[in-house]
Amino acid sequence: MFSGPFGAAGLETEVVMKAVAIGKIAEVTGGLIIQGDPGITLRSVSTDTRRIKKGDLFFALSGEHYDAHDYLAEAAAAGSGGLVISRLVSLPAGIPVLLVDDTLAALQALAAYNRDCFKGPVVGITGSTGKTTTKDMVASVLGVRLRTLKTEGNLNNEIGLPLTLLALDDSVEAAVVEMAMRGPGEIAALSRIARPEGAVITSINETHLERLGTVSEIAAAKGELLEHILPGGFALLNVESPFIKREAKRCLGKVIFYGMNKPAGLMAQDLRPEREGFSFNAVLEGERHAFYLPVPGRHNVLNALAAIGVGWELGLTMEEIAAGLAAVSLTGMRLEILEAGGLTIINDAYNASPASTRAALEVLKDISGGRRRAIAVLGNMLELGPRAVEIHREIGKKAVGPGLDYLITVGNLAAAAAEGAVQAGMTWDRVFPCTEHAVALKILKGLLLSGDVVLIKGSRGMKMETIVQELLKFEGSKTVFHP
């Protein structure tokens, strides 16, 4: 939860917040107290009866396949300090109950109230790719000086963002919140709750094509964030993203473009590969500043630029910003470098888009360096719409080169990447399209030699981390590959 020298703690579906009276919660949410004393105060919120703790205010959320109103007795038995419901059902006795029109809307209203009571800066981060990594970098930078709350795990949607904001209490001095979306209007809704002082749009690319149709529409949906920053606020925008100049016109505050390959107010230059990442210079307001980023991937230097810009706008010194970047620790399964039995495993299994897959393949080639065998195991990239097969085929073509020795694909869409690789010159004895993880793993194990570098990448729904878990059991081969 906290980033920087102040330590870290997990945030799931139970959140400790400032003490709030039931009566005040009713006022904020427009609810009616139908049971209990309005003067009772609560200090924590939960949305999951499996994780509820004594004293939690339980919000009975409903969805397409679940309704927490069916578990109110379990919530009470677990020690819940109060219930928020949207329909009258059999209620446990002896526990405060608040009736509202919509429990999710009530959760969001309480979060918005808590955010409005918070006096520190809130930074909102969205984008097609790079959100989580940039969030981690920004939080690490701000954490050098400020007690910084950040989004944990995947709590970046209409439920997760309110839970994050409810954790804003007197111990927090800054917050960095990630915002995800499935369609238009969702970033705007999250932004109205978070009311950020600073905003970052990390990238605009083909992710979510299935839901939004065109990259232009994706840009418009991400750009909703810019209309909701506070007066006097700022936005860091990746100048290399399509349509970003158009979206910048929606910004209500200061705009800072950042980039590496196009002119921008904040630029990275002189990239130098290091053992675990890159050293580089950032040029801001005509001044050059040296940084070290212990994270693989040239594309991550772009994400670091956003963190530099946010830190600078919020008053940190360049020395503090450099210290924060040098100490950054990324959320798991994002270009996570693991070692097992002489293998180097690049665990990038959390999610995949065309842009992030291209970037991950570059990291694979950088780490193998032409001296070690490079093996890519790629799963389906989902939500790409009618062009999905074509996009996968193009990824396969781009993967081919002296830096890739073997390609294994998992899934019907990823099979098109295998076809593309063969079309671009790889031979079928080096390309293995598979329909199941088990088959891919069997082939992979038959290929592995100590010294190999293996990339595992795929969309969240593909659960490619199951292959990573098996690779971690690798004990090495008798033969060590020598180029």
From TrEMBL:
One Pfam family this sequence matches: Mur_ligase_M
Protein keywords: ATP-binding, Cell cycle, Cell division, Cell shape, Cell wall biogenesis/degradation, Cytoplasm, Ligase, Nucleotide-binding, Peptidoglycan synthesis
Native species: anaerobic digester metagenome
Keyword Ribonucleoprotein: no
Mur ligase central domain segment(s): 125-310
GO molecular function terms noted in the UniProt entry: ATP binding; UDP-N-acetylmuramoyl-tripeptide-D-alanyl-D-alanine ligase activity
Keyword Ligase belongs to the record: yes
Protein known as: UDP-MurNAc-pentapeptide synthetase
